Amino acid sequence: MTFSFPMMKAFQRWDSWWMRTGPPHALALFRIGFGAYLVLEALTYLPHASVLFSTAGLVLPLQLGIPVPLPWLAYVLTSGFVAAAAMLAIGYRMRLALCILIAYFLYYWQLSFYAFPSSYHRIFFLSFLFLLLGGADKTLSLRMKMERGAWSAWEPVCLLPQRLIAVQLTATYAVVGAQKWWLPHWQDGDVLYYSFIGRWGTPLARWFVSLDWSRGTYDAMTLGTKFFETLMPVGVWIPRYRWFFFVGGFVFHLLVASFLSIWWFLVLPPAYVAFIEPEEVHAWLRRRFPSIMR
Asked: What is the pTM of this model?
């Protein structure tokens, strides 16, 4: 089979987009943001580890034979998760840290996470796998400080992990946005009204409801949510408009966390850097921090 010249050029562009090498700074920023988020999340679990993950709590493993730790061991294990997440954030023995985090995730999923399945669990797990491909610790990391004498030292990396993170986020927003158009509960504003006054509602949400807004207000909020989540996976790829969607995405997830106590998706905004070409990220850092960036 022979390829025409235009087909060959298209294939080369496609291959270059996925597999070419470039500065690692976008990946490194995601690694730092993701790792820091995991540290903060695990610290919220740590004081309650005995209730959430031990024989002292209500733990029903997914399968028989999954060992449930004693309370003291649950605190040790959760502390180990915090340490591994911190290693990821600072870029120290990143692959070892990721393997530890993957093992923790698989264990906790069998232990209790399965009872509350959510798309953010899949985002976490896939992000672990993508980062395991390497490159995210090639700058702004303790590794480079130890090997090259400077945190800002860097080496070119394959862009595949960055592209996979961007595609993962695109698919997440696209699917979540699309399903809201046909799910019965998302056809009017009742879904938000009852969420605000339900068990997920925060004091801020209940105060908002107490203002006695019209039904049309909640209908408009629901429609706006559907439009935003539908446009988001397109807008983030358009350089001219992507910063509008970056800011909009951050504000959107912040509002969700503030009104519905669903704060786990705040891990997504740090991943927006994956939509920016690595050379642009590196150039911006050099302009912003000329005294320390190479």
From this structure: 0.92
